Amino acid sequence: MVLSEAQTLAVQQLRLQLTSPESAAKHVSEAERDRRMAHLKSTLVGLSIEGPMEPGRKVLDECAHQEATGQLKYLPPEKCVSRMHEAVSWAEYDRYVTRLFAHLHREAPPGFGRVSVSQIVEADRKVFSKLIEQDVKPQKAGDGSYPLDKALGEALTSYEVSFCLMHLPLKGPSAPPARPNKRGRDEQPSKGRGRGRASSSKGKGHSKSSPSWVSIPKFIRDRGGVASLPSGEAVCFDFNIHGDKCKCKPDSCPRKHVCAKCFGNHPH
């Protein structure tokens, strides 16, 4: 029985080759396609001929037709489709691509960046991983529908794929280095316990407040000195550097003449 059918098909093929050679060479049997694809994959080492990179059946038929007739023809880009385009309707595939790339234009919340192209590629790869796991067939169903039409949209909105398309937080800027002032001192915040608290001291009938950000001389800072007492009162830098030779006097200076490190009654 099988031999009889094979002979019948062979006779029909020979008749077509004689009467209409173009029609005879237009379609390649499934077994022949598989053989040629296996040959391509084994020959083109290093090239992945799978998924979107696998040529469509119509492309293989057209190339086989040119080989059989010995006539080279130009194949326009719109006809060089992959196997993927033959497994899903064009409308659904176009909708899938549009929805996928629409994530590039989503507004990011404050502190987060936009979705990158690498995230789009990773999401697309994840979609097909899910389709493979679900064993979705890249073929037409018996009623003429494409199983991938529905499966593509469902995979794109799945939790795993949505996770690939999340906005990622931006890296915070690093703290700027200390900027030296005109005297060569680095501007640093006060290191005392009372940093940032206003203090008042009696001097000539008026009070002065200690600033929350002061410039500590390098001589004092290198020795562990601070700018104010635990109570918030400012320390006299001139007294700590020059001792009794400082220009200001304890009774008239608005700052305390104490050690900037231990707060004792002596210079630093």
State the main characteristics:
3 domains, 10 helices, about 270 residues, rod-shaped
Low-confidence runs (pLDDT<50, min 5 residues)? 186-211
Radius of gyration: 41 Å
Quaternary state of this entry equals single chain
Specify the overall morphology. rod-shaped
How many extended strands? 0
Number of domains: 3
DSSP strand (E) fraction? under 5%
Which bin fits the share of residues in helices? 25-40%
The major sheet is characterized as:
none
The count of helical stretches stands at 10
SSE-based structural type: mainly alpha
| Strand/helix succession | HHHHHHHHHH
N-to-C span: 112 Å
Mean pLDDT: 75
Region (Disordered): 172-214
Protein name: C3H1-type domain-containing protein
Biased composition (Low complexity): 197-212
